[in-house]
Amino acid sequence: MQISKLIGAVVFAAAGLSAVSASALELRYNRWLPPTHHLDVRVLKPYFDKIAEVTDGRVTVEFTNSSLGSQERQYELAATGVADITFFSESTTPGQFPLAEVVEMPFLGDDTEAVSVAYWRTYEKFFKDTDPYKGTHLLTVASLPPYHIYNAKREVTAIDGFEGLKLRAAGVIANEKITALGATVVPAQITQFVELVSKGIVDGTYFTDDGIVAFGFLKNLKYKTEFKDGLGGFSISLAMNKAKWDQISPEDQAAIEGISGEALAKKFGESLNQSVSDAQKAMKEAGVTVTPADDAFMQAVRERIAPIEQGWIEQASKKGVDGAAALEFLRSEAASYTAQ
């Protein structure tokens, strides 16, 4: 009798273990950032570990050894199921995500954590019902740090100083901004910049503090024109293939949602803020001349860029979104945000 009970207990335990194993879901995150990139190290890896924790191991995420596609294809990889989770910037596919261009609007704020959290709240309130990320379940959206202008030729103290400068930029709205400021746009990917500036094809770039340092441009650029609250950012997103999301139980979906969305946008913003702070110290040590735009300069920039903002508002209306209200909400939420 005791032996029979023991055998029964072993069989029952084995069956239970088998059921847990069968229900476990391992997801593949398509890694395209360098493994040492701060977003991989400080945000994505801890987030994926947390997914395993909150689901008691029923959902786990592993990094691919190499990328399954180009940076421009990251959303497509998730939507089509080539990868289960991808990280991407909507700016790499111009025209596909017009609502995400809201964070490319100027003067959203210098605090990337605040802007990222405000952006998520704006997405939830104004954009979510338009279902812009078809084929995926959106885990979060966030913003890159504020963009400024850097060049190798001269200090720019007024808007007329941009005349004659050839500046690299990428993306429709970024190009429109540079043109509006009076400079000449040289459309090119950031990986081409060193070659272009060394040959005199470009004089500078529209970029972020942390990007300038991360890509090794300090030796090429000696002047930064700094705009309070930035000339805009770029949207970044993390999404899961919808079919994979639907395989997860409602309970585990709820657990994952609890660490995603605003909480994850905050993590992205925190890491990016730290990266900018480190970069600004490096720029100071490298002797970069930083020129904050004064009130007259800022007013001239606002006047030049205003039509671009109005253009986005009109694009949003075509999607059934009150763009003016969304932009006002984003700026208000970012301005009033207090880190917890």
How would you describe this protein?
The protein is of the alpha/beta class and 340 residues long. Mean pLDDT is 93; it is low at 1-22. The chain starts with a helix and ends with a helix. Strand 6, helix 5 (172-180) and strand 7 (184-187) form a beta-alpha-beta unit. It folds into two domains: 24-91 and 111-142 and 233-275, D-Maltodextrin-Binding Protein, domain 2 (3-Layer(aba) Sandwich); 148-232 and 287-336, D-Maltodextrin-Binding Protein, domain 2. The strands form three sheets. It has a six-stranded mixed beta sheet with strand order 7-6-8-5-9-11. It has a three-stranded antiparallel beta sheet with strand order 3-10-4, with helices on both faces. The chain is built from twelve helices and eleven strands. Helix 4 (112-127) packs antiparallel against helix 10 (261-285) and helix 5 (172-180) runs antiparallel to helix 11 (295-318).
Q: CATH superfamily membership of the largest domain, which one?
A: Bacterial extracellular solute-binding protein, family 7
- List the quaternary state of the chains: single chain
Please give the share of residues in helix: 40-55%
Q: What strand order characterises the main sheet?
A: 7-6-8-5-9-11
Please name the CATH architecture of the largest domain. 3-Layer(aba) Sandwich
Strand count, sense and barrel status of the largest sheet are: 6 strands, mixed
Q: What is the CA-atom radius of gyration, in angstroms?
A: 23 Å
Q: Sketch the topology as an H/E string, one letter per element.
A: HEHEHEHEEEHEHEHEEHHHEHH
Structural class by secondary-structure content: alpha/beta
Q: How many distinct domains? A: 2
What are the low-pLDDT stretches, counting only 5+ consecutive residues below 50? Answer: 1-22
CATH class of the largest domain: Alpha Beta
Cα(first) to Cα(last) distance is 60 Å
